[in-house]
Write a structure and sequence with these properties.
By secondary structure, the chain is of the alpha+beta class. It folds into 3 domains: about 1-80 and about 125-310, Bira Bifunctional Protein, Domain 2 (BirA Bifunctional Protein, domain 2); about 80-115, no CATH class; about 335-425, Anticodon-binding domain (Rossmann fold, 3-Layer(aba) Sandwich), CATH 3.40.50. The protein has helices at about 1-10, 30-50, 65-70, 75-80, 140-145, 150-155, 200-215, 265-275, 300-310, 345-360, 370-380, 390-395, 420-425, and strands spanning about 15, 30, 55-60, 80-85, 90-95, 115, 120-125, 130-135, 160-170, 185-195, 225-230, 240-250, 250-265, 280, 285-290, 290-300, 310-315, 320-325, 335-340, 365, 385-390, 400-405, 410-415. The strands form 7 sheets. A 7-stranded mixed beta sheet has the order 3-9-10-16-13-12-11. Strand 17 (about 310-315) and strand 18 (about 320-325) form a beta hairpin. It binds adenosine-5'-triphosphate. Adenosine-5'-triphosphate binds near residues 171 and 302.
Length: about 425
């Protein structure tokens, strides 16, 4: 984990927020490579679960909502962690994260448990006396329920259908830790799938399969994934059934995403609290009812961390240590690097022109400084799947070499075939 965190900082994937001020706990910044990696992941998710399906709709709702939303959802009353403080070292822990009865850091005595609300609050309004307390949303799904009526009346929807949202969520985590695994500001990718109650099990199982396939599709190794069924006694207040997908991180198994059957809880609650009827008229069955909700709820940061952990590899090549990020090409932040063998003899100009052309189709990098072997290694470390080398033969026959990151093998191909060759292998959408 330490090696990965250090690579992420050194190469500009992820660093702590406000670093020059000493850093702020639980907040992270995605640098130039990290932003591309996470964008690829979110785009792939959106494409898989929204754009390529005919019964899914998207939403991008505001982060701050009417505070009543959080009363109706149960967050104001129920979103409490039970906390204990260490009387010796003063560190604070969530009781459900502790294994023994002593402080896990110093072995000191712990205080009596007490409740702590994990929603981050802010004040809305210009003057102190008129400002009202509002919350930064702790989950993206509530806006989907609150906007349910508007979405249904502005679109022709037939049950079953889903609404998806990707966006920031905030939780005042007691103990943010394990890099971006548990932070105070993070991104969620959530779907509320509305179906008839009698079909809830069928759809629950269908979503289990689809979620699993998505993690494999983004390149996560299957042997590092597992399902965890929540026992009935520990289910959240809204849930009829919950299963989690867990990933084997270097620090142990951790939740990547949940899949819950939320029943009719949320739409019923918002109907009651808002006084608006949120039932749905099912034209096919000529019936009005509150649909049942199956919710796949994933974290973009945790999925990004799983992709990073899975990609990291070290190997010895000719007595030298090679660090290589074996990203699935669809996830790689940079798809192709264009490298002239030498700067002279017009090779740099050819490479530069080629790179400018490719840049319009996918992310590229141009590098002419240092020995070619070193330049290949720099690209390996950031996970670039293809390196294109412009050499002396290019001037004679307009061919280039393509080096493959994982095998380090090189093929020669006509320069004008490079675009299609790479595009086909890195695109999130199907390209023919
Ligand atoms: P945990 O038990 O780990 O606190 P949770 O069960 O409270 O997580 P959910 O409310 O189900 O999490 O949220 C859905 C998803 O959002 C999680 O599976 C996770 O991927 C992501 N997530 C939740 N909290 C955080 C956090 N503090 N930092 C990063 N991602 C988070």
């Amino acid at each position: 984990m330490e090696k990965l965190v250090s690579l992420c900082k050194r190469k500009g994937f992820i660093f702590q927020s406000s670093g020059i001020y000493g850093g702020i706990n639980g907040c992270w910044d995605f640098g130039p490579l990290g932003v591309e990696l996470k964008r690829n992941l979110k785009e792939h998710w959106w494409y898989t679960f929204v754009l390529s399906r005919d019964n899914m709709l998207g939403l991008d709702a505001s982060i701050i909502m009417d505070p009543q939303v959080w009363v109706a959802s149960g967050h104001v009353e129920q979103f409490h962690d039970v906390l204990v403080d260490c009387k010796e070292c003063k560190k604070r822990f969530r009781q459900d994260h502790l294994e023994g009865e002593q402080c896990p850091e110093c072995g000191g005595e712990l205080s009596e448990p007490r409740a702590f609300n994990s929603m981050l609050s802010t004040r809305m309004g210009v003057s102190d006396d008129s400002a009202v307390e509002a919350y930064l949303r702790p989950e993206t799904c509530q806006a989907i329920f609150v906007d349910f009526k508007d979405i249904c009346s502005s679109n022709r929807v037939k049950i079953p259908f889903g609404i998806a949202q990707i966006g920031k969520s905030f939780r005042n985590e007691v103990n943010p830790r394990n890099f971006i695994f548990r932070s105070r500001e993070f991104e969620q990718m959530e779907i509320e799938f509305f179906c008839r109650e009698e079909e809830e099990e069928k759809w629950f199982e269908q979503w289990q399969q689809d979620i699993w396939s998505w993690y494999l599709d983004i390149g996560v190794k299957e042997e590092k994934l597992r399902w965890l069924e929540h026992p009935k006694e520990t289910l959240a207040h809204y849930s009829k059934r919950t299963v989690d997908v867990e990933y084997k991180f270097p620090f142990g198994w951790g939740e990547l995403q949940g899949l819950a059957n939320r029943g009719v809880y949320d739409l019923t609650q918002h109907s009651k609290h808002s006084g608006k009827d949120l039932s749905f008229f099912d034209v096919l069955n000529k019936e009005r009812y509150i649909p049942t909700v199956i919710e796949p709820s994933a974290g973009a940061d945790r999925a990004t961390l799983a992709v990073l952990c899975d990609a990291y590899a070290e190997e010895t090549v000719k007595d030298d240590l090679r660090v290589v990020m074996r990203f699935d090409p669809k996830m790689a932040p940079i798809k192709a690097a264009v490298l002239p063998l030498v700067k002279k003899h017009g090779l740099a100009e050819i490479a530069d022109t080629l790179e400018k052309r490719l840049r319009k189709k996918f992310t590229t990098y141009y590098d002419h400084s240092g020995a070619i072997g070193r330049r290949y290694r720099r690209q390996d470390e950031i996970g670039t799947p293809f390196c294109i080398c412009v050499d002396h033969q290019t001037k004679e026959d307009e061919t280039v070499t393509i080096r493959h990151r994982d095998s380090m093998e090189q093929d020669r191909m006509p320069m004008d075939e490079v675009d299609a060759y790479i595009l086909k292998r890195v695109s999130i959408r199907d390209v023919c």
